[in-house]
Amino acid sequence: MRVSRLMLVTLRDDPAEAEIPSHKLLLRAGYIRRVASGIYAYLPLLFRVLQKISAIVREELNATGALETLLPQLQPAELWERSGRWSGYTAGEGIMFHLSDRQGRELGLGPTHEEVITALAADLLRSYRQLPVNLYQIQTKFRDEIRPRFGLMRGREFIMKDGYSFHANEASLKECYGEMDRAYRRIFSRCGLKTVAVEADSGAIGGSASQEFMVTAEAGEDLILSSGDGRYAANQERAVSLAAEAVPLAAVPCKELETPGQSSIEALAAAHGFDPSQIVKVLLLLARCADGSLQPVLVSLRGDQRLNDVKLANAVSARLAPAQGALLSIEPLTPELVRTERLALDLAAIPFGYLGPDLSDAVFASTEATAGMGNAALSSKPQPRLITKLLRLTDPTAAQLDAFVCGGNSPDLHRVGASWAGLGLKPEVVDLRAAQPGDRCLHDPNQSLVASRGIEVGHIFQLGRKYSEALGARFTNESGTEEALWMGCYGIGVSRLAQAAVEQNHDSNGICWPVAIAPFEVIVVIANLQEPSQRQLGEELYSSLLDAGLDALLDDRDERAGVKFKDADLLGIPWRVVVGRGAKDGQVELVQRQGSLKRELATADLLAELPGLIEAGRSGLLA
Ligand code: ATP
Ligand code: MG
Fold it and tell me: Which of the chain's termini has less CB crowding within 10 Å, N or C?
């Protein structure tokens, strides 16, 4: 390929739309162009990178026996209704682009493919003799991300490798999961990426194992908590740890305490000399469910701890009645929310800031009426229905306190020396606290959690039987009875990975692609196009390098040499061959983009040596 034919437009300055180095560099070096928010054109240079990544992915997955396939991106709503995800993915979080066709049938643009593949499995897989099966595809996915940003890192249209496996039993699923783990490590290492595998949130499905692969980088959106001994690493969404010991509260008989204006933990602790760990913090939240019902949730947490929203959403999801459908969202139940939603609640009955874990259901029961009597009553939307029984969840840090301070369920009032039995409660204990950097580790309390940032490039997941049960994907087992298939799913963000590679491999002059995924392996720069000997040698060399099987690019533009050198650095091609003044004596200069190698040599020597140097880089094993 010739640079003169590449539509190459490089930018000297950082584009205003980009915040992180990799995004700036991909724009500046002419790899991508923004078409709309979260929607990018992959220009020919980037397309070559994507193809190289895809080739590595294919090689490694095919080697495990996985089969490539291609599934439709337009997916009928009906499939998603059967899995129970339609409302959550459209009306709820709303991540799925959806539309109606001209017959009025509803469709979604695939953000992921569990539904489609499971429906196929239901159709095609009948017997244990056909199992296990592992299918994957590399394809554009659509997600209406609320905050598309950082270029290809979080797009609304992006390329993903997604794979799904089907098994006769859990042991077979676990074996495949292990094999995918190993394949993923090889894929990322061959792409020249330094990744760490971390425990990940498994969503509302619960219990099943799931692991993310993170490219470590400061610009990463994910917070990783890991132990110094390397034995534990988890996404903060999921991380567990030992909370600091609580400061014991002298066991006094429970008594009331006037606390005017002390509605926050800090104010209360400061006014009376309590340690925040002696206080039970009570949070009132409202969960919206797909059937239109509103479920109030009361969370009790130790005063020095923070709530982990992902853990909360999982815990609430798992406890909804089947008729309530999916959890759409969960947010603090505040006086403002009561007013804006026109909830039929008596605000005076809820002493915000002074709630105790024993807040009475009567607060809600008194308002048996339907919520949202305003405009909603006129619309065809389902009426939100306020559930009158609180879902009460207690974090272990709070449940373990023998005596504590808590709200008195009355304005300006707290109680000191309260206990769970004394309040007449048997707490439902569930891990809800956010693990923090500095916390002690569960596996070894002498280790503590250290924070780092990562870019999630892959996710492997033991799904279990959630989708196969919902979509009736059943097979006949060895003893002749029917049961639901066991499933795993495995994703790699191919376009995100390309940008993550830049985030991890760049310097002040531009990109430094790992050889294995570089758009070209070598760029031949003709310093002065007006000089016939340079031009001729450059052309010859370019052909010879192509003949030698190298991915060569020829900079044949009639530009100043300095401009071309700068562009070559910006583009990040691993090797540069400069055909300059020495051309008439058959001498050229070889420069390595990342590293210190820079030397003059004869053309013949270059042709003898360069293929070997590049071949060593292609294997992609990290230096
Ligand atoms: P995230 O938490 O970053 O939103 P996710 O958990 O939704 O990711 P998966 O559904 O597991 O991601 O998708 C598989 C892979 O696809 C991810 O590991 C990631 O690399 C990539 N990916 C997900 N969303 C996007 C996006 N909006 N843009 C680019 N890549 C994405
Ligand atoms: Mg996501």
Answer: C
Cα(386) to centroid of ligand 2, in Å?
Answer: 29
Measured by CA distance, the residue closest to atom 19 of ligand 1 is 493
- Report whether pLDDT(148) > 50: yes
**Number of independent structural domains in the chain:** 3
Residue 348 lies in a domain: yes
Ligand 1 center from residue 606 Cα (angstroms):
43
Task: Give the relative orientation of helices 494-504 and 44-63 as an angle to the nearest 10 degrees.
Answer: 110
Q: Which pLDDT belongs to residue 185? A: 97
**CA 115–ligand 2 middle distance (angstroms):** 17
CA distance 503 to 505: 6
pLDDT digits (tens, 9 = 90+) for 207-240: 578 999 999 999 999 999 999 998 999 999 999 9
pLDDT tens string 261-284? 999 999 999 999 999 999 999 999
CATH label of the domain that carries residue 566: 3.40.50.800
How far apart CA 54 and CA 426 sit, in angstroms, is 54
Question: pLDDT (tens digit, 9 = 90+) per residue, 500-524?
Answer: 999 999 999 999 999 999 999 999 9
Final residue belonging to a domain, choices 474, 503, 532: 503
Query: What tokens were used for 178?
Result: 């292990």
pLDDT digits (tens, 9 = 90+) for 338-392: 888 888 888 888 999 999 999 999 888 755 444 444 444 444 555 578 898 999 9
The pLDDT of residue 366 is 58
Q: Are residues 31 and 150 in the same domain?
A: yes
Q: What is the pTM of this model?
A: 0.90
Q: Is residue 187 part of a domain?
A: no
d(CA 201, CA 310): 8
**Does residue 116 have a pLDDT over 70?**
yes
Residue 311 within any structural domain of the chain:
yes
**407 and 470 part of one domain:** no
Same domain, 56 and 163: yes
Whether 322 has a pLDDT exceeding 90, the answer reads no
Shared domain check, 331 and 475: no
Nearest CA to ligand 1 atom 3: 456
Instruction: For residue 352, give Cα distances in angstroms to 254, 336, 368, 394.
Output: 21, 12, 21, 18
Name the token pair of 102: 């001209």
Same domain, 289 and 348: yes
Number of Cβ within 10 Å of residue 1's Cβ equals 17
Query: How far apart are alpha carbons 209 and 459 in whole angstroms?
Result: 11
CATH number at residue 139: 3.30.930.10
Q: Which ligand 1 atom sits closest to the C-alpha of 112?
A: 10
Distance of CA 95 from the midpoint of ligand 1 (Å): 12
- At 575, the amino acid letter reads W
Structural domain including 559 reads 510-618
| Domain match, 464 and 586 both | no
- For atom 4 of ligand 1, which residue has the closest CA? 154
Mean predicted lDDT score pLDDT of the chain: 93
Both 517 and 486 in a single domain? Answer: no
Burial class for 388, CB neighbours closer than 10 Å (0-12, 13-18, 19+): middle
Ligand 1 centroid to 510 CA: how many Å? 26
Look at residue 186 and tell me if it is in a domain: no
Q: Which two tokens stand for residue 240?
A: 């567990």
Do 548 and 477 lie in one domain? The reply is: no
Domain boundary among 369, 397, 418: 418
CA 149 to centroid of ligand 2, rounded, Å: 12
What is the structure's pLDDT at 369?
45
Question: Measuring from each residue's beta carbon to the nearest atom of ligand 1, which residues come in under 6 Å?
Answer: 112, 143, 145, 154-155, 158, 160, 456-459, 491, 493, 495-496
